[in-house]
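PROTOCOL LOG
Step 1. Enter all chains and additional molecules of the complex.
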Amino acid sequence: MTKNNTLTDTVSIALTGSGGAGVVTAGQMLVQAAANAGCYGLMVRSSGPQIRGGESAAYVRLGSDQVDNLGDAFDIMFAVDWLNVERFIAEIPLSENSLVICDAEAGDVPDVITATGAKIAALPLQKTAAETKGGRPNMVGLGILAALIGIADEAVEGTLEKVLGRKGSEAMASSRDCVHAGRELARDISQDGVTLQAQDNDAERWTITGNEMAGLGALRGGVRFVAAYPITPATEVLEWLAPNLAKVGGSLVQAEDELASINMAIGGSFGGIPSLTATSGPGLALMMESFGLALASETPVVIINVMRGGPSTGIPTKSEQSDLNIAVYGMHGDAPHITTAATSVSDCLFTTQWTVHLAEALQCPAIVLTDQSLGQTRAIVNKPADLAFIAKRETMAEGTENYRRYAVTASGVSPMSIPGMADGTYVADGLEHNPRGTPTSQAEDHSDQLDKRQRKLDTYDFGDHWAEILGDGETAIVTWGSCTGPAREACEQAAADGLDVKLISLRLLAPAQTDRFQEAIKGVKRMLVVEQTHSQQFYKYLRAHYDLPDDVKVFNQPGPLPVRPGLVHEQLKSWS
Amino acid sequence: MADTSEAPRLTFRSYKSDYKPVWCPGCGDFSVLNSILKALTELQVKPEDTAIISGIGCSSRIPAYTSVYGFHGVHGRALALASGLKLARPDLTVLATGGDGDGFSIGGNHFMHACRRNVDMTYIVMDNQVYGMTKGQASPTTAPEWEGSKLTPQGTGINPFQPLAIALAAGANFIGRGFAADQNGVAKLITEGVRHPGFSFIQVLSPCVTFRPEQRDWRDIVRPAPVEPTSNLSTAGKRLMGDDGFNTGVLFIGNRPSYVAESGGGTDLAEIEKSFAL
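Step 2. Run joint prediction.
Step 3. Record the structure below.
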């Protein structure tokens, strides 16, 4: 029997059910139990647009090492019922190697399932749950799944205590009974190649989402003022920051709209406090005019943009990389600024913290791009290392005479005075200005200031963090953001075929790092561009800024379906 | 912060910059600028501890004509930027300035929510019932039958916005109206507005002699409100809905506490990170 996924020691499990079936809870507990067994994993939550209830699905992938993305197909699908399963089935690739566990009383197995050739195990889920007072089939499922993949009872027990402990002993007891009953049911079924090896793991590990990572990156970077307007799928960044900012002496305000939130953040930053807001596509569009104000007035500010399907309201709950264009080119005027992108759930921390540092150092607004699939995925990861990137703004020296806020300097960065500093008063302005800050329409002033704002980015040494580069070979995958994980796995799949593939994932999208990129692709003869957009935004961006090899292929796929490693691997295979 | 009791008294000139305003001769905004400078002199706030935030429009040019910190931002968003500054830096004295188009049209939503939020700052709107910088279009406070604009040659036909009544309904904590030519009166309003906690809103009737020359006649119409300031919402509501827009003075003084962003501090980040541990 062949495995569904090439990464030899991962297990992929989809849990589906109608509203209230508790599959997300069961999925979370499964990940937690695997973590208790020393393993790693992640869970992507998939839901429709309903506010509460409605169908939902949890996609879990577990492994003995960190897992960055979903795999190609699911080893196991656990369906509490078949209601609305067709809404999710495109997100749940199954094969004849998959095992589908369902309720024997849930009716006929839908054709979309049987057509995959997957083995079906119809078990008395509801009936078993009903035998326990307060019993629920999702907990029966947890027991079945834990047994199938070899998670010991004490690892599950620890999770039950953590999740249900506060609900009282009755809830605990009934869940425990259901889990045990599930283990009994699992004796009658089997699935090859899904045993998760328990690890003797003494690494300090976290359970965290990408949105929380981004929030923490902001705090670690020194952000102490945040203006917030809720928007899916970015809200959790702000909700995490609200209490935690206050704990470290910062503050958060809920704005009336995104026009206000970006301006409030600019106001806070003008006051000398590193400031940030988080949003998604529609909010970013509203913020762009004032983002330009931050740029022209050289007031650092950071926007974390958690991308979702667009344009317009689009698909709020699902991932896509289609805000690349607006993040890089969205402003009127010549507007050099910083755009970065996180490459994994963990990297949401690094990239946000680094970006705060860059924005402050360069007195330049910055956009951090993450997306729904990074932001709302909960993962078990090793605790991220502390980084040296802390907000540090060059401020006016004490005793400066005839202070000129926008003095033309070699680096392009002019020391900034902060309210409270005597002799440093100035008017920050979105009007073009001369070095003193006085509005001007003179050609020379305009070109001086345009040059200066460009020079800040051109002369700054962004170091090695501009991209993640792995492996070597004449074939390269160039990608970014949440496509990085699947692309990396595709490289491993290709290596198994004997093809060496270099992976280049760009973390710094703007300013473009021409010399570094050309150096990185030296010797590369074929390039596969991988992105989750419909209009090949990333490929066009690469064409605009870099010299690419003659042989370039583009694999682009819009959301909401994730880019899967096997699809990328296929592209590599069909090349040779 | 240095001990202010030892510092020499700051004068009008301490707050004035040497820039020449872009305004037309006779513009009411010259007077309002003077009133702001007089108020700051009366308040004796240090220029470096004061900020004036504005949007876009003739009157939004004011920050540059003072020597305090300033931000001349985008159209309509002065109150948002000013709120962010004051919340992040509660130690500063923050004023926002602008015109009726900036504040009530493109910035109308922020106006309502700034009143509601009640951050401790003072908003001065120079109301001339016209867009001056774009050469004379109807604003939210323009009378419906005004035919002076090429954009609305038959008049707007729309009832004017009632800024004071709306400010009251939305929750502003101090509401006053002044007339530009009454420099001392406006300065007094601003001084009181700054001293009063929460969001203070001051409408200054500031004639546009270029596009609304008939506003020169305002000097004959304005009058001190024939009543004492009230802190009663219902009384103030009747007063504001009933007046003709030319009663000046303090019209409402509320007693809501200022909004401040929660900020405790004292927790080490490492402590917060423990919540992520397995």
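Step 4. Note key features.
Confidence is low (pLDDT under 50) at residues 1-7 of chain A.
Chain A touches chain B through 66 residues (CB under 8 Å).
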